[in-house]
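REQUEST ID: PR-0412
SUBMITTED BY: lab tech R.K.
PRIORITY: routine
TASK: structure prediction, single protein chain
INPUT:
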Amino acid sequence: MQQPRVAVVGGGLAGCECALHLARHGIAVTLMEQKPLRYSPAHVMPKLAELVCSNSLRSDELTSGVGLLKQEMRELGSAFMAVADAVRVPAGKALAVDREAFADGMEHLVAETPGLTLEHCIIEGLDDPRLHLRDNDDEDGFDRVVIAAGPLAGEELSASLAEAIGVHHLYFYDAIAPIVAFESIDMNVAFWGSRYAEPGSGDYLNCPMDEEAYRRFYTALLEADKLAAHDFEKEIHFEGCMPVEALAARGERTLTFGPLKPVGLTDPRTGRRPFAVLQLRPENATRSLFNLVGCQTKMTYPAQDRVFRLIPGLEQAEFVRYGSMHRNTYVNAPQALAPDLSLRSRPRIHLAGQISGVEGYVESAACGLWAGMSVRAALLGLPLQSPPQTTALGALLTHLATPAKNFQPSNAHFGLMPDPDQKIKKRDRKQWYSDRARKAFAQWRTTLC
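STATUS: complete
OUTPUT:
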């Protein structure tokens, strides 16, 4: 029997994590990285596992979704986490790293791991001859391919992926509106209702504004600090995902005829139509999280905190995710990917990292780890159950498998997990989620081979 061979395309966080997991379990891996032959507009270092923006891996507390995910990765033998922990720098309750030392540490592991070969080359598509998938009698080629090219995948590779999965399942632009926790919305102000529905019925929460409140919000929106575009982000916006502040700049009443239009809605407190209305759409089936409809934005996070809290009903809003807009490439994971992150249209090709529909350094590495575990199980004939949704990793993978009208990448957070089946005091909820996850993860680990 031939030794299984896998090609991993992309030497970023997900690619390195995936390749190292496979090689450490006896599978021959070729890691293909385009640097230093070609750089994306975001990358500057020739090293593997480059942290492009921040050096922070966010909270390390187990009472946060990302902190919990990091701990689960540690217990699964994550190379990413081992190096990060070794080169951490002071950052309070967060895990931040020396980015040069981190890249050096990952490069050292790749160079010293038996069965792992690093090849510098440019892969221009899924059918590139260097990714040849062998048949049973082939001597050369690979048994599986993992694409971990990141959100700035080259145009040729992105076009090839679009052809394989259908162009409507590949997104090239990321427009994200903020998400807030339901329990932080003032229900003395907000009301349920869909346009032209009976008062008190409907699927949306509505935050009504009188003229004074709207003008206060509008002025703050125009004056708020905005993030300057990176060199690799073109300032091109489609009408369907225009930044809310860009719409506002077109005129004082533009928003009231657009995303904040009050037509068909009646404020039950006054019995009249408001001057403007912000609608919030449930983000999950349990209605614990709500999306600020039409509020994708390039405002800084502190500005979002201040400006959106000027809207009546959101004065004490707890932001689970802030809004953003940036050039990105990722697939409509629920439609394009199987649970093992393989392409439904080409099952021997897997995706890993941000291109698969997750957001963030840690989440990308976790996705690479799961891709490695899935490929290993498939090649060696081992059973592998997906982790339960009550764990951080399982919740993230469930997000990738849950159909959505407008699928968006997500960080790890407790909102992706099932709600408690009992009443929990607000101050105890995060600890409760964490305790439940730790127990479920420990039980799941007993099923691993």
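NOTES: The radius of gyration is 23 Å.
REVIEWED BY: pending
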